[in-house]
């Protein structure tokens, strides 16, 4: 079995993730394709992930790819997470991951509606949900695009309250609005459009999928074929990786993951005693890249691409991840994480190195911090999921 060393994996990361200067992407679409998808749970991540890989990019050009050209689309995908994906690849993600999520979330929502007293049984709650969904979809079609609040005015049943965690200290009674819209989006019927505020806003206009894109999301491949295509894309960007890496990243069952790897005829390789996989023909060493540094945002796809992160994270997990497994802003050098960064109220980018990188690399990192301070131009980005180190660097 061919052995692939950590150094080789770091070289691949630098080139394939468009982080080495000689490997930068031409635009937001190419940057996204290189990573399969961009994390979009935190809206700022999309813009910062692109800016880290596309020289000269700015918020306007990324927004244009999303909302004018619509070459990128915001959608629910792997692990029930919101991503930005290349629009032609959206049907693959839908069939490989989102369809299964939609089925599970419908069952859960029907259960919660029954507990809230919408109907005495699940069948009744299911019929109620279908009726509200159809009414909401019709209202959205008539408006062309709308906010959640506007749709709840058109369909008053969206203001029905759920009873969550009754009797607990964290009990809540949220409106069903967001859950219904989530369900319609998970089934590919509606699409998240422009944000209501700035590029940092997490609230969006909604549009019918057919209005946002001619023909909606397009024809979906069969689920097994879609999972194989998604596995191939992941291996092309993140390989070598393990079975556990792909299963975690995709959110699939163990059986689905094994079948997808078999379908793409993935080649086994040795990763320091652990079995990893690459695509057929991808066993040869990557072309070397020049030394590089990068500042990546919270939830960037690169550090969130593998379950086993020791080969690029080192001993820094406790400083850079929150308690639920979300990574904060990170500083990279030659394929490994060497520190973190944050912004105080004044807006400049501050960083802290967590290991000795040598004087030359430290100078590069200092210069990169200055570049990011200029790029952000006083805009302060506070990650939705905050790491311990980011919180410290953002004080003052």
TrEMBL record:
Single GO MF descriptor: DNA binding
InterPro entries documented for this protein: AlkZ-like (IPR009351)
Keywords, in A-Z order: DNA-binding
Recorded superkingdom: Bacteria
Pfam families cross-referenced by the UniProt entry: AlkZ-like
Protein known as: Winged helix DNA-binding protein
Provenance organism: Kribbella amoyensis
């Amino acid at each position: 079995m061919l052995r692939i060393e950590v150094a080789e994996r770091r070289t691949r990361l630098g080139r394939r993730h468009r982080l080495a200067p000689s490997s930068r992407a031409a635009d937001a679409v190419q940057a996204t394709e290189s990573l399969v998808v961009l994390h979009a749970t935190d809206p700022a991540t999309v813009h910062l992930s692109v800016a880290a890989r596309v020289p000269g990019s700015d918020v306007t050009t990324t927004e244009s790819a999303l909302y004018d050209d619509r070459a990128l689309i915001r959608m629910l995908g792997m692990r029930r997470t919101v991503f930005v994906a290349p629009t032609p690849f959206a049907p693959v993600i839908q069939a490989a991951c989102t369809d299964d999520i939609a089925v599970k979330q419908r069952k859960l929502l029907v259960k919660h509606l029954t507990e809230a007293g919408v109907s005495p049984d699940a069948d009744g709650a299911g019929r109620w949900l279908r009726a509200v969904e159809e009414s909401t979809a019709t209202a959205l079609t008539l408006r062309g695009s709308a906010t959640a609040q506007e749709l709840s005015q058109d369909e008053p049943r969206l203001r029905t309250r759920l009873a969550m965690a009754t009797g607990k200290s964290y009990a809540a009674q949220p409106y069903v609005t967001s859950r219904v819209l989530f369900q319609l989006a998970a089934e590919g019927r509606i699409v998240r459009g422009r944000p209501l505020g700035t590029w940092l806003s997490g609230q969006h206009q909604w549009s019918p999928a057919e209005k946002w894109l001619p023909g909606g999301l397009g024809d979906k491949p069969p689920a097994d074929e879609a999972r194989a295509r998604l596995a191939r894309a992941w291996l092309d960007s993140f390989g070598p990786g393990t079975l556990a890496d792909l299963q975690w990243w995709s959110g699939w069952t163990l059986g689905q993951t094994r079948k997808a790897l078999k379908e793409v005829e993935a080649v086994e390789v040795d990763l320091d005693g652990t079995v990893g996989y690459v695509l057929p023909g991808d066993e040869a060493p990557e072309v070397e890249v020049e030394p590089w540094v990068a500042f990546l945002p919270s939830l960037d796809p690169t550090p969130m691409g593998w379950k086993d992160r020791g080969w690029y994270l080192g001993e820094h997990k406790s400083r850079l991840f929150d308690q639920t497994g979300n990574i904060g802003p990170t500083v990279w050098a030659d394929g490994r994480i060497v520190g973190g960064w944050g912004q105080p109220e004044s807006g400049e980018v501050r960083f802290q190195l967590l290991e000795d990188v040598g004087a030359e690399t430290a100078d590069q990192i200092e210069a990169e911090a200055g570049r990011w301070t200029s790029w952000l131009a006083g805009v302060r980005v506070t990650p939705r999921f905050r790491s311990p180190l980011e919180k410290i660097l953002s004080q003052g």
